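Annex B. Sample input.
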Amino acid sequence: MKISKKVECGIVAIVDISLHSVNGESVTVESISKRRNISIKYLEQILPSLRQANLIQSTKGCRGGYAISRQTDEITLKDIINALDITILNDCYFDNNDSCTVINNTVYELFWKKSIDKMQSYAENITLEKIVQKCSEAMAESNQNFMYYI
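Annex B, continued. Sample output.
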């Protein structure tokens, strides 16, 4: 499976926002861009998808930016991925021509359906809180400047 750059950058961006929107403070696109080396223009294309999914909220003005809109233990990796690309964790479909329908249905039932169900279940059990906690631990262990790199 290949994950798109949009999904990868979207996950990085929401983790960054979660780490830096302490006490509901907004995180600017510019600060995410600088810390994560993602272009501002690209972030401006990605962040609205996360906002429309009610994962982040935006604030306008001189202190504007983005903050997490719900508790991090309520946001799952599945929520984030689906906000950015609904096709990754969804069912796959075969182009059914009459000569292959039985084979396609059998392969779907034995392999694809079970694989997709497991991926969806796994993604539902990983919360943004778990991701943020793991990132924080890894950064602390590596003795890097915690607030800048996270």
